[in-house]
Amino acid sequence: MTPSARHEHRPDVRFDGGDLDCGSGLLLLIRKHIDPLSRGQLLGIRSTEISVDEELPAWCRLTGNELISWTKTGKQRSFLVCKGRLVEREIGDRTPRIAQAAAAIAPVGRQPPRAARPALPIAPLAVMGIGSWPRPRWMIEAMYAHVEGRLDEPAFHETANDAVRLDNCQLIPLTDLLPLVDDPEECKQELRALDVPASEIRHPAVFGRLSRTRPLVAHEVDFAQTVTTKPVKVALPGPYLLTHTIWMECISDRAYQTREALAEDVVRVLRQEIAELVDAGASLIQLDEPVLCEVVFSGAKNRRSFMCGALSESRGPEHELGFARELVNAAIEGAPRERIALHLCRGNWTPDESVALMGGYEPLIDTLR
């Protein structure tokens, strides 16, 4: 949409977003002002941030709101956004107003206990959704703001829900992005050495007893079921992965005397989450255990490895596979087996193809049984 000379409609509410972009607070202000409006009412937004020219129209498409018009005079921009569609304005004028409270953001987390939902069946050999999609800049900035404590939980989830509705996205090859870095050649060398640049990795650690005071992802199943009629699959980190990754003797022993003690709490947390996912109607609950292949094909470690559990311990394949079996079976005990899956990762943590890609799956068969 190109800028207009002026707006043909008057906003019901307006505010000035200054130089904020969509990732650093403008979307929050938009939500604050647009949520109390009835469908068909108009919100006026003033801004001096150039990126809003593209990101606000995209946000409107994602959230089902309509960008009516926008103007530009120098750096000053003015946008007119309709909550819903403009055609609803006339309908709304002939019907009672919707109570403002009904449009408020729903609290993050699960609703009060309710009857379990039936799960939709998954066809044999179904192709599942791909895990990592590109994210708009405002979503990435919101993630950092949430991690740093500048964005509260409800606001973050509202932003994340908007991003889930994403359309018109492309996969950009890393080679196309190299001209944007300070030292392209150095970046090329890093990408050749690691499948995932080390600067992108955050390693978890435990400093106290693990607990689960709220759902991990169960509330996301509720949201996913509002935007699709297809079966919903959920992926969770497996109990062995979590235990192997989190346990670091120099830190974890402040809360747990042994790795096995930590594993008991990991299993308890996952059992609680799996039970809630079953009740939420998740068709498939997948436990991810990528470390098992490293255990089998790399053997006992006498060095600290890069892949999951960089500072953890490994006592050899036979012991580790037995430990993993016990944890997975304990985590899924009582859950409907037809709705449980196990994912093993083969070959994306090391550039050494002799470790990553060669060898049969025989060492894993007993565990998979």
Strand order of the largest sheet: 1-2-4-3
Low-confidence segments, given as residue ranges, are 94-111, 301-311
Distance between the termini: 58 Å
Radius of gyration, taken over Cα atoms and rounded to an integer in Å: 25 Å
Task: Give the proportion of residues in helices.
Answer: 25-40%
Indicate the multimeric state. single chain
Give the overall average pLDDT: 77
What gross morphology would you assign? elongated
* Helix count from the secondary structure assignment: 15
How does this model look, in words?
The chain is of the alpha/beta class. Among the domains are: 13-97, Translation Initiation Factor IF3, CATH 3.30.110; 205-368, TIM Barrel, CATH 3.20.20. Helix content is 39%, strand content 11%. It has 15 helices and seven strands. It has helices at residues 26-34, 52-63, 87-93, 137-147, 153-164, 174-177, 184-193, 218-227, 239-246, 249-252, 259-280, 291-298, 317-332, 353-356, 362-368; strands spanning 13-16, 42-47, 66-73, 76-82, 233-237, 284-288, 340-343. It has a four-stranded mixed β-sheet, with helices on one face. Strands 5-6-7 form a three-stranded parallel β-sheet. β1 (13-16), α1 (26-34) and β2 (42-47) form a beta-alpha-beta unit. α8 (218-227) runs parallel beside α11 (259-280), α9 packs antiparallel against α11 and α11 (259-280) packs parallel to α13. The radius of gyration is 25 Å and the shape is elongated.
